[in-house]
């Protein structure tokens, strides 16, 4: 069995404890601040898969998330015939891991493309009956 002595805490001991706590609080000031919203937005402009910087117009042609383009691309529906530029959907591109775009096609090619597909499907059915 061991003997333990009990000491009462006096003002000097309290001051020493407080001084040590304040010394340790100085270490807290050395911690880097949290990431700002602007810094986070900058990170979003990089491809999460291959790491290229889309804002500097870098792309990887064999990366699904890049999709061969940086932050903008010609209309994917009519291959740019309508001259509309589509913007990368950063959130969806990162979430899905595949290039995702926001924009509209103002060309008649979109409608013609559907008509051509319907005609091709009908021709294949006709061909299959012969």
Class per helix and strand makeup: mainly alpha
- What is the overall shape? elongated
Question: End-to-end span in angstroms?
Answer: 103 Å
Strand content: 5-15%
Give the fraction of residues assigned to helices. 40-55%
State the major sheet.
3 strands, antiparallel
Strand order of the largest sheet: 1-2-3
Secondary-structure element series: HHEEHEH
Mean pLDDT: 77
Multimerization state: single chain
Protein name: Protein pinocchio
Features:
4 helices; 3 strands; 7% strand; single chain; 130 residues; mainly alpha; elongated
Please give a structural write-up.
The structure is a single chain. This protein has a 3-stranded antiparallel sheet, with no helix packed on it. It has helices at 11-28, 37-44, 90-96, 109-129, and strands at 72-74, 85-88, 101-102. Residues 5-9 have low confidence and may be disordered. It is mainly alpha-helical and 130 residues long. The chain has a domain at 46-129.
Present the secondary structure layout.
Elements: H1 11-28, H2 37-44, E1 72-74, E2 85-88, H3 90-96, E3 101-102, H4 109-129
Task: Write a brief structural summary.
Helix content is 42%, strand content 7%. It contains four helices and three strands, in the order H-H-E-E-H-E-H. The protein starts with 10 loop residues before the first helix and ends with a helix.
């Amino acid at each position: 069995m061991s003997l333990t002595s009990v000491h009462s805490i006096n003002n000097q001991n309290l001051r020493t404890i407080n001084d040590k706590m304040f010394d340790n609080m100085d270490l807290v000031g050395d911690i880097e601040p949290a990431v700002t919203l602007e810094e986070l937005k900058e990170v979003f402009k990089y491809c999460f898969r291959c790491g290229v910087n889309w804002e500097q117009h870098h792309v990887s042609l064999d990366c699904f998330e890049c999709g061969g383009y940086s932050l903008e691309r010609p209309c994917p529906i009519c291959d740019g015939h309508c001259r509309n530029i589509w913007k990368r959907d950063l959130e969806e591109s990162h979430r899905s891991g595949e290039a995702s775009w926001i924009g509209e096609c103002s060309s008649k090619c979109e409608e013609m493309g559907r008509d051509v597909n319907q005609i091709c499907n009908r021709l294949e059915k006709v061909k299959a009956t012969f």
